[in-house]
Amino acid sequence: MEKDNDRRKKDVAYIDLIKEKARADRKTIVLPETNDKRTLIAASHIIQEGIANIIMVGDEEKIMDGAGWLEVELDGVTVVNPQTSELTEKYVNLLYETRKAKGMTIEKAREVLHKDYLTYGVMMVKANDADGMVAGACHATADTLRPALQILKTAPGVKLVSGFFIMDVPDCNYGEHGTFLFADCGLNQDPTAEELAAIAESSAKSFQTLVGAKPIIAMLSHSTKGSAKHPLVDKVVEATRIAKEQYPYLCIDGELQTDAALVPSVAKSKAPGSEVAGKANVLVFPNLDCGNIGYKLVQRLGKAEAYGPMLQGIAKPVNDLSRGCSWEDIVGVVALTAVQAQLV
Q: Are residues 54 and 139 in the same domain?
């Protein structure tokens, strides 16, 4: 990890380090949104860069026609057509067995898998025919998350699934050489104190996996150490208490305003003695409004690269994309998903 830190100090982009890790142990990732041109362009670059093996779900003729129109090469991509693949009946039976207690029938499973490419992709991951899936460029988060939770379920010991972004901020001395994890920016609307504590613990693991540095977690608020009184502040204070009690190995503190969490000089006056203040690299927001607004401000005004929303807490890696993503964003999230898959 020292080597990684040295390279970051030499201004090597964070995502280039992730791609290097992905290439070292190449995984197979499903891209089910094959009617989206960004997905086709991203798949071409992923194969060319050797980041991951790619499976695309859909009609091969239509996919290749789209690639030809875009003038991109998809040599080396595996295309699986649910209508004709011999794998489909295996997935039909597996989906039935997984969901029969919820009323699933063989006929319904077959109908779903013929029509819903996202569910088909999740079934490939469930059956160990792929290591992870990335979708969301043209689907809402709920559409991506629903089959993942229903079929893959949560990882052992995880209390809830949450979403995060890896933020890579240029010319930034804060965080881990400008790299941060922001949570929850995409999933849980108004988490309770207990849920915020669980998000902090999951985020620490994700940061360690994807950044490789010690997670230093700030529980954010509009108050620092009692500077304001409000039930919203009380929630963050209680979340910090729960996290310290349940996960004593975490380096975590709160409640902290963002400047106190990030800026050493501010931390000295607002939160003297805090082991987190002025050093935070994992920022846990009190609700989805704050997290979503915060990451988009940093992305658009700070010109940061924002990778996500990544999902944490699912048994196998399935990650979401913003519908405003670029093909470059898809490449980055696939690389991150591949690194997550290396540790499953």
A: yes
Q: How many separate domains does the chain show?
A: 2
Q: What is the CATH number of the domain that holds 330?
A: 3.40.50.10950
Cβ proximity of 213 and 165 under 8 Å: no
Name the H helices within the chain: 2-9, 14-24, 37-49, 60-70, 87-99, 106-115, 117-126, 141-147, 193-210, 231-246, 258-262, 264-270, 288-301, 327-342
pLDDT above 60 (res 216): yes
pLDDT at residue 106 above 80? yes
Residues 308 and 322: their CA atoms lie apart, in Å, by 7
CA distance 327 to 337: 15
- Give helix 87-99 / helix 117-126 axis angle, nearest 10°: 80
Instruction: Give the CATH number for residue 260.
Output: 3.40.50.10750
CA angle 120–313–283, rounded 5-degree value: 125
| Residues 88, 199 within the same domain | no
Annotate 306-335 with three-state secondary structure: EEEEEEECECCCEECCCCCCCHHHHHHHHH
Q: What long-range pairs does 224-231 form, CB within 8 A, spacing at least 24?
A: 224/255, 224/256, 224/257, 224/260, 224/270, 224/271, 224/277, 225/255, 225/256, 225/270, 225/271, 225/274, 227/257, 227/270
pLDDT tens digits for range 28-62: 999 998 888 999 999 999 999 999 999 999 999 99
pLDDT of residue 226: 82
Q: Looking at the predicted structure, is the pLDDT value of residue 93 above 90?
A: yes
Closest CA to 193 of 234, 146, 235, 243: 235
Rounded to 5 degrees, φ, ψ at 202 are -65, -40
Bridge partners (DSSP) listed for residue 165:
182
Choose among 55, 18, 40, 87: nearest CA to 330: 40
Q: What residues make up the domain containing 11?
A: 2-153+316-342
pLDDT, tens digit, 9 for 90 and up, residues 133-143? 999 888 888 88
Joined tokens for residue 12? 């090597």
